[in-house]
Amino acid sequence: MRIVPSDRPPDQPARLVDDFTPDLIDVGAHQLCPGCGEPVAMRSAMEAISELGLEKRTIAVFGIGCYTAFSNNLDVEVLQALHGRAPSLATGVKRASPGTVVLTIQGDGDMVSEGLQEVVHAAARGEAITCIMLNNGVFGETGGHMTATTVLGQRTKTSLEGRDPDRHGRPILLASLLAQLEGTAFVARGAVNSAGNVARTKRLLIRALETQVKGAGFSFVEILTMCPTGWFIETEEAPAYLGEHLAAVHEPGVLKDVLA
Amino acid sequence: MTALSAAPASRLMQGSEAIAEAMIGAGCRFFAGYPMTPFTEVLEHMARKLAEVGGVCMNAESELEAVGMAWGAAATGTLAATGSTGQGLSLMQESLAEITLARLPLVVLNMSRGQGDYFQATRGGGHGDYRHIVLAPKDAAEAVELVGLAFELTVKWRNPVLVMGDYYLAHTARSVAIPAPVTHTLPSWALDGSSGGTGSAKLISFLGTQKQRSDVGYDLADHYTDCAKSTAAMAAGVDPLVESMGTDDAEVVVVAFGTPAKYVHSAVRQLRSEGAAVGYVRPVTLFPFPTEAVATAAAGAKAVAVYENNQGQMIDDVRLAVLGAAPVHFIGRLSIDSSGFGIAPDLDVEVIRDRIASVLDAAAGGT
């Protein structure tokens, strides 16, 4: 801990949120909950675009969830989609304007619960887009309800005693499902619960975008994100909870990379 | 409205093909659809013809994806269209509502079964607060003209335009002339990625397109107020099209739209040739509804009769136009047969003629 002396002027200038804001995010502040993993994931995605120099070719298609707060806060072009529908919009954008780099930003409720058919067909078509799923295993925006990726035993407002396979069914491991399809060129799962995982996730995002730029096929990155509010735990417990529960079922790693 | 002059390039075509030719001629370069009778042939023709001009036609995996793909293409400034049959349109409504609030141009075809989709077409069809311009051709030649107009209007008003057809329009052939191709220039709002990294990257969203530099989040109040203004301007700015006959001296005015109006027109012509004081009005734009034309036609009449192949839907708009100046009678009927395509025997000039005659008799008895 750094002790800030108050008996004299500071020996270094104050550091504002803006000083840490990536180039492609307009306003560094966000209105998401403390401890949320989604701003970290958004930051990683925007830094990946910057590092590849794709900011003048990129169109991001947003789903609906807490992360939608970023859809009018980016310095890349954005098209807002309905809940679950981003992959078909992204398909239309890419087919009509093949020179663009097109990605979707969706949550697990958006992509797996509401819109599973969309992402599966886009992947099967080998659509030259990159779909990014921010997976926290819960409908965060509505206040903590069960999604198709909620892990067994996880408590939500609609699985009060924990997700029970007999009553609620089992989670869908989307990355594993998509990796089986011939149209997918890159499928990976990262997490943002530690500095190391954030760095690894950014490398996955860069790899996915490179896959798209090279025209190799559909690319997919799932990012496990913290949601202490929707998990009903203390903020500081969330990174460890992610590692012990979500990541134990939705295991991080590269599932498929045809360019490797 | 002005009829197309017969051009030497006329060719015998089914309505589906004529509509496809007209869309491509109007500059449409992206089409997505999911097969469903009687919409299917439009999709087939687009799959073949769009490829020939460098456009894209997608056989989507569902109507939800068809409208989504068209939405994405429209956001790039490409002239885009989609469509289905009423049931498929129902699946698309959530997206159609939001595409309207995102202020994107899109042409939507409803090759419907019967005329039960009038409410769906003219009342918005989905959730939320919006309107679509709705055009209802009576045959393939008029469809060609109205498809061209649909693309003009959708670009001008940045609002989806719906073209209502049916089984007869899709599957009946006649000689049709296709107008000269129109070139389309990319609008300034179109996404192509290039505004990224400039500090003012473009945004197309049904939640609002203005970014708030000093804060995060959308200003929905501002956006919805702007949308309401645009809708009002569009409703006032689009000239309603209407076809009418013999309304000056009519004691009974018959109102009908789309294919069935052709049968009504025949029945009215027969009755007039026998001296009956009957007139005919056909709304060609269903929204904005030709309220003034219907009101004027009904002004001197003793009764108004509405023929449509449903339980009575357009009759609500006719009553709103007539405003009690004359009684409004429903003389239509559900036209359902085992095919379900709305091609039942109710579409019969003799049957329709008898129903109009009954209204004439009653009106005469009332004096």
CATH topology of chain A: Rossmann fold
| Fraction in helix of chain B | 40-55%
User: What is the assembly state of the chains in this entry?
Assistant: heterodimer
Number of helices of chain B: 12
N to C succession of SSEs of chain A: HEEHEHHEHHEHEHHE
Using the coordinates shown, work out and report the CATH topology of the largest domain in chain B: Rossmann fold
- Judging by the overall fold, what is the CATH architecture of chain A? 3-Layer(aba) Sandwich
Query: What shape does the CA trace of chain A take?
Result: globular
Mean pLDDT of chain A: 95
Second rung of CATH, namely the architecture of the largest domain in chain B: 3-Layer(aba) Sandwich
Distance between the termini of chain A: 43 Å
Amino- and carboxy-terminal Cα gap of chain B: 35 Å
Structure characterization notes:
The complex is a heterodimer of chains A (260) and B (367). With 260 residues, chain A is α/β, with parallel strands linked by helices. Chain A has a single domain (29-257), classed as 3-Layer(aba) Sandwich (Rossmann fold), CATH 3.40.50. Chain A contains nine helices and seven strands, in the order αββαβααβααβαβααβ. A seven-stranded mixed beta sheet of chain A has the order 2-1-3-4-6-5-7, with helices on both faces. In chain B, α9 crosses α12 (349-365). Chain B has two domains: 1-238, Rossmann fold (3-Layer(aba) Sandwich); 242-365, Rossmann fold, CATH 3.40.50. Chain B has helices at 15-25, 40-52, 63-75, 86-101, 118-122, 140-157, 167-171, 220-237, 258-273, 291-299, 314-322, 349-365, and strands at residues 11-14, 30-33, 56-59, 80-84, 107-112, 133-135, 161-166, 173-176, 203-204, 242-245, 252-255, 278-283, 285-287, 303-306, 328-330. The radius of gyration of chain B is 21 Å and the shape is globular. Chain B is built from twelve helices and 15 strands. At the A-B interface, β1, β2, α2 and α4 of A face α3, α4 and β9 of B.
